[in-house]
Structures are given as C-alpha cells and as structure tokens.
C-alpha cells in the first residue's frame, strides 16, 4: 500500500453522507448524551474485555443511551484480517478500537470521518497531540479514546536497600546506578539486574522502548521524504548532526555488553516483566496499564511508578504511548450510531469512568487538566500530554526488524551504522507497500 494512498483513502462516501449534518462532534463534547437512542453498536477492540465490559456496565447505569453498545475483544495481530473477512461477508462491526500501531494495516478498511463532521479545530482542541496520528486527507481515521504511556516501574525495596531515594529521572542518571544495584557473580553472571535493556526477545515492550528512545532524540522513525515518499528515518544518515540514531542503538545495547560498567542484562535471563514481578529486577519499563497486573499477580511487590526517564539535555519531554481510537469500518451497519457512541465516550464523565475501568489515561484534554488521586494515574495523565508515536507497519514486522538490528549489534555481526541502515531500509520497504 502506497503511503499516498494511505493518507488519501476516502472509502465509503455513502456512509459519511449519513454522518455529515446528522451529528456535530462539538455538540457532544463536554455535554450529557442525547435522550434519543443510538441503536445497536458492536465494537471490536483490542483492549481487555473485562475492563471494557466493566466500563460499559458502569456507564449504562448512568446513561441508557449506551445500553445497546456491546464489546468483542480481538487479537491485535489478527484484527486486520478478521475485519477484512467480516467486511467481505457483510458482517462488519460498527466500530473498531485499536492503537496507532495497527493503523497502517487497518486504514484501507476504515471510513475516514470528514472534516465537515469533525473539524480540525475541534479535534486539536479536544484531544492529545498524539491523536493527530489518526489524521487523514480531509478528516480523521478515528476518534481518540484512551492512551497508555510508557512509564518507569521501580522496586522500592531494592532501591532503598541500595541507598537510592528516588528512581532516575534521566537516562544518564540511570546508567550511574548499575554498579550500585546490579549483582554479578565472579564469572559475570547476573543475579540481579538494574534494568532490562540491551537485548530484544526477553525485553518486554522492547518495540515501545526503542520507539521512545528514537522519538526522544527527535527522530520521527517514519516520515515523508523530500520527494513525498513515506519512508523510515532512524537517523542512519551520517551527515545528520550528532548521529542520533547511532546514539540510540549504542545506548540501548551497552546494557548487554559484559565488557562495560553498564552491563546488567543478557539474553539468557527471563522475560523482563516476569523478572520484575519476582523481584529480580530493580527497574522495569512498561505501560501504565501494567500496574494493575503487578498488583494482582504479586500483592507483596513494593513498587512505584514514575515518568519515563528523559535525556539530560532534553528541553521538552516525550514518551511513547499507545493511543487507542474508535474507527468506523467500511460496511458498518450503524455508522451514524457508531459515531455518536464514540463521541459520547469522549465526554468528561465517560472518560473518567473509562480511565478508571481500564487503568489507561483519557485522551480528552479536559480530563487531563485535573490531576487524579492515584499515583499511577497521576503519572499516566501527565505523560499522556507529551506522549508520542509513529505510523508503523504491523507490530510483528517492526519486532522482526528491530530485533534483527539489536541482535546484529550485540552479537558483533554488524556495526551500529550497518545495522541502522539495514533496519531503516527494511522499514521503508514495508511503509511503501
């Protein structure tokens, strides 16, 4: 799929005709729902069904308009194919809920919302900046709903025992903690690690972590070239001042280099999420929503959640976030009701309930101006304002490319420069399909 087509797809004009003039998004934002029904609305989404069903149950008690909305959980990896099959057989859902990581694969099955229905001024004044990833030519592919930002989890017991009062706020400070926290045997075997970085397959959320590091160095990862072609940009160009891409890969891989003082992780260790859960890892990079998993899986785990570390020289903050949006698929039987349901769920009261039920942060700016009471939620809300992302090929394809890049460097098969060029080329090829 050519990216020019990706940006310009305007499928299902007939569906939009029913929307335009029927509903103005700003009418719903910040107001109570209409007393009229929206009809039956079926949502296919990749967020957990338990938390979403809890949300709809709570909302339906206050707003009968949403009683006819149902939710079906889908696997993110198979959602594009599932949706294509459903459209072909006339059984498409009314809404699709997924993050920007699947947008590139889903776009050809989505009916964009016209700017006549959802004006750009309304969109930008209502939602977080990362929501602009869903912009299309003349409208938007979806309405932002919730965002799950990447945060830093810390084992407070380990840090306290090492005399460390606060988790690191910068990457430079993090490196300095390795000798004080990591426990290595005389043969350089890791008994306890500081943080899981340097490898790929056993680093939970490695794709998001690397994305965050590239974005923090002002590399967009994917963007239009000067010739108008959508390509990858990992900073492999040697003329790029400071070679930020090389710095990112060098920083990431050093933690798995046994010859360096920053050595604290290797490929033989367990998955990082499980290592943190069992108390064998001091710091863990994960999404804010994972806090509930850790609390439920190990009630005795003494952890805290703080913002993702930033470069010491950064003048602005950024983190990687999964922004989930409601999208209207081609062939939706109740497109107008679907749009109304999506808009209703961005109201202030509905956003508060949704965030509470899922453990994610609201996408609506009005909600983010109020600091929530919970410590994890407070961090997630703050980070949602500066969360960033990129339009990527399918997550599995990105994993394959990023994993190859990291493994080739740590194994010594390639230099960082060579690995970057190869990864950038592979990503560009996928983006131009």
Present the secondary structure layout.
Layout: H1 3-8, H2 13-19, H3 25-28, E1 41-45, H4 49-62, E2 69-73, H5 79-88, E3 95-99, H6 103-106, E4 113-114, H7 120-126, E5 135-136, E6 139-140, E7 143-155, H8 156-161, H9 171-181, E8 183-184, E9 190-195, H10 206-216, E10 221-224, E11 230-233, H11 244-253, H12 272-277, E12 281-287, H13 290-297, E13 303-307, E14 319-327, H14 335-344, H15 348-358, E15 361-362, H16 365-368, H17 375-384, E16 387-388, H18 395-410, H19 416-431
Parallel strand pairs: 1-2, 1-3, 9-12, 14-16
Antiparallel strand pairs: 3-14, 4-6, 5-6, 7-12, 7-13, 7-14, 7-15, 8-9, 10-11
Helix pairs in contact: 4-15, 18-19
What does this entry look like structurally?
The chain is of the alpha+beta class and 433 residues long. It has two domains: 3-148 and 321-385, 3-Layer(aba) Sandwich (D-Maltodextrin-Binding Protein, domain 2), CATH 3.40.190; 149-320 and 392-431, D-Maltodextrin-Binding Protein, domain 2, CATH 3.40.190.10. It has helices at 3-8, 13-19, 25-28, 49-62, 79-88, 103-106, 120-126, 156-161, 171-181, 206-216, 244-253, 272-277, 290-297, 335-344, 348-358, 365-368, 375-384, 395-410, 416-431; strands at residues 41-45, 69-73, 95-99, 113-114, 135-136, 139-140, 143-155, 183-184, 190-195, 221-224, 230-233, 281-287, 303-307, 319-327, 361-362, 387-388. A hairpin with a 2-residue loop joins strand 5 and strand 6. Helix 4 runs antiparallel to helix 15 and helix 18 runs antiparallel to helix 19. It is globular.
